[in-house]
Amino acid sequence: MIVVGGEALVDLVPSSGAWDIGGPLLPRWGGAPFNVAVALGRLAVPTRFLSRLSEDPFGVALLERLHGAGVDTSLVQRGPEPTALAVVTVGADGSARYSFHFEGTADRLVTDPGPLPEDTTAVALGSLSLVLQPGASAYLQVLHREADAGRLISLDPNIRPALIADPVAYRACFVSWLPSIGLLKMSDEDAAWLNGDRDDVVQAYEWLRAGATAVVITRGGGGLSAVTQAGVVDVPALPTIVADTIGAGDTAHAAVLARLAAHGALGRDRLADLDADAWRDVLRFAAVAAARTCARPGAEPPTAAELDAPEPA
Description:
about 325 residues; alpha/beta; UDP-N-acetylmuramoyl-L-alanine:D-glutamate ligase; four-stranded mixed β-sheet; 13 strands
């Protein structure tokens, strides 16, 4: 069982599929951790979501989407506060940009549920939920406690610079998390924000030395890389006609976790022992899953049946 913790929100997306400041906006269910949970559920990986959802109609819809994906919601807290909103603009190349509305919303008031259920094998965290207080402190308690309990922690920082009031302090906090992190997944844009002009693979090795076990970097059309103490594995992106990139990175994160589970590698020792061929298989699976998401509007990750991937040898 993988526990995914973090924000769930509503993306307000242009109905035309492209940026039109005068056009209507349609609600789509999102939030990076929420998307990861839905994607894992659709990939038939046992998944439990940890968050706080509003009791408003948006919160009800978010809960129904989790149930529809087969995600366990026993750790979902509820409250009367409104659902967070993200207004999305989509560029000509399909790239998405966001403006967020989080003040007083339900997800910020999540509390630490205490030790996670015994069937938990891995915990996926990150994104805005590790920035916005007071909820960030609750998720960080989960991160460190579950890492100390021997569970694999997967972190995707999913940097949103506009919401980080003190970048220097955030970067210092990020480094302090690394001894607890098994899998560090991030986009090349996140890596550039964290390390400036430094080569992201060179920086990834520094993150390994700081404590992480493996680093996966997604580069959009440039493919994916896995960096471990054994070396670097690269795979190309899958060619596709891009509707938009909403949820593509979250799908890749979920697909990496799903394929690691298929390899029996949801543990820090097992992750460290994964060889280049296995990493290549993991990244190819993630590339296919992300391409499927890019090919349709909004964060709509594929199901296991759509990918029809064979089990690894």
